[in-house]
Amino acid sequence: MRARPPIWLASPSRFAGLPRARARMILAGVALLVLASLQSLLLGEAPAASGGAGASDLALYEGIVAGMRAGGGYYDVAADQLRALDYPLRPFLTFRVPTLAVVQAALPPLAVLALMLALSVAAGLAWLAALMARAFTRPAPLVAAAVLLAGGLVAFVQWPLWPFHEFWAAPLIALSLAIRRPGLWLSAAAIGLAATLIRETAALYLLVMAACAWIEGDRREAIGWGTAIGLFAIVLGFHAWAASQAVGPLDAQSPGWAGLNGPGLFVRAVWQSSALQLLPLGVAAPIVALAAFGWSAWADPAAKRVAMTIAAYAIVMSLFARLDTFYWALMATPLILVGLTFLPDALRDLIVATMDTRRVRVQRITR
Hints:
Keywords: Membrane, Transmembrane, Transmembrane helix. This is DUF2029 domain-containing protein. By secondary structure, the chain is mostly helical. It is built from 15 helices and no strands. It has one domain.
């Protein structure tokens, strides 16, 4: 089937000219995705991420940084704060990697806030430049993308949240995705590694990028991302050993990560951490599903990697996250809403393909 001119995109979407049967299968998958997003309405209210007696994660991280500014060592200060606020100390992953706390303790508060703002702005500008160069040629879709990008990044410029590790790692992942190009991946891998040294769950992003490079046949890039994973594993090993030195046999154990709360938890978390919180959850949930799907429509290598990163975090959250670990979704939040700008072309091309009723006629001529 002949592809129609794009609506918003600079070039036809990935779904342009698909066979009718395949287009119908994809539309059915989109419908299932939207239905799955409504499971978020069935979940109980997510408790605030906290320790005992109502202590919050914000108080925990602020206390750790304050203790380090007073001259304490990271692991001793962190262990004391975890105990004081009735948090578990085992396994070692209950201790965050010390990178962010060390930096924040070494800098004046104003510099920390400026750095947080600069990181989110850099990620946003890098993506706007990429979309302007490769996705859109007209002002309307670019303005829409800028608004949606701001809607996804709005949580990451809230200065009172500076102690949270996800609010630093997520913009780093977004920036890494923006600057990666075929054959130009070293800086992206370095930034991705930096994200893992702030928040360990960013390692899932490194795995996705390594898998994408391997599937695309770029063995050198795959090895590069694999090297970043290896370096992270070495750091994590030292971190595990150092944390174990500060933990005693009577310290509490974490309840584990086997929530099995389904995709609704991811959808609700994106709703809570983006501009979508201005809408009722029943309206926002299908928007999250359609935005995630929209990334699959842009026929660009970066779009495929964004889509796979979003899918990876959604799947992991569905299987393992507890209601109080909703913040895992922050890793996918900065970019997810931008997928809505690819949706008009995607849905138009899929609907047109499903309505294709042309028949091939074979005529035999006998002489």
